Amino acid sequence: MPNYTRSDLVTQVSELIGDTSNQQWSTTQIQDRLQKAQEKFVSDTRALRDTQSFSIVAGTNTYDLSTDTFDIARVGLTSKGVLKRIGKFDMDLLVGGSWQSVNGTPSSYYVDVSSTNKKLTLYPIPQSADAGTNNLVVDYVKVPPVMASDSDAPLNGQTLLQPYLDALAYFAAAQILYASNNPTDWTKANVMIKQYDTKATECITLFNDLSETTPLRLKISGIGRVVNAR
Q1: pTM for the whole structure
Q2: Nearest 5°: CA angle at 193, between 189 and 198?
Q3: What are phi and psi of 50, to 5 degrees?
Q4: Burial letters for 24-50: b for 16+ Cβ neighbours within 10 Å, e otherwise?
């Protein structure tokens, strides 16, 4: 299956909204809706994934995550297995303020991801017995790439995601039609949101089947319907 490009998706959206000559909606406006659709799809499905490995250093419990980290799916320690994710606030409540000085083999972690800070902190603080090379593995959801040119492939051109790219066109087209003053267009948009939901749910099911665990946030329904549905 050949990789779709931004240009292919723009053409598809133009056809879906019935404006193939781009008289009502410019190519630039459609491109903007497609970028937002890509971000929506990744947020809903968490399917754009990658891994990052760290070499644990004794006495060091905080590690810098990749700059393209959107969220963490799971974290594993080769000698321990999958670690439990916990929020910093919960850590303070459950363990107390002294948790930052507790030593031992890590069993939990919390994530600090913001626009300027992407860090992973382990609890307890690893010791010499926990040190190793590439023995901490992070499975993470990536920030969607910016499609800056017509030849750019959405969702990083990942092969497994190619069958679901129609979802981007459906969502982008729906947002355009919702902006119309014509109730008929709103009805069409509702149909496209349902088509987006179907594709996104199929993608979630695939990645659940490929994964050993199912993060709670993947168990969602009615994904696109909450946005601008009329």
Answers
A1: 0.81
A2: 145
A3: -155, 170
A4: ebeeeebbebbbbbbebbbebbbbbbe
Domain interval for residue 196: 6-47+144-218
pLDDT in tens, 84-135: 999 888 888 877 767 788 899 999 999 987 767 899 999 999 999 999 999 9
What DSSP letter does each residue of 91-148 carry, written as one string? HHHHH-GGGGG-BSS--EEEEEE-SS-EEEEEESB--GGG--SS-EEEEEEEPPPP--
Residue 208 in tokens: 């659940």
Q: Do both 156 and 206 map to the same domain?
A: yes
Q: Please, are residues 139 and 105 in contact by the beta-carbon 8 Å criterion?
A: no
109 burial (CB, 10 Å; 0-12 / 13-18 / 19+) is: buried
Last residue of a domain, one of 111, 142, 173: 142
The DSSP call for residue 75 is E
Largest CA distance in the chain: 67
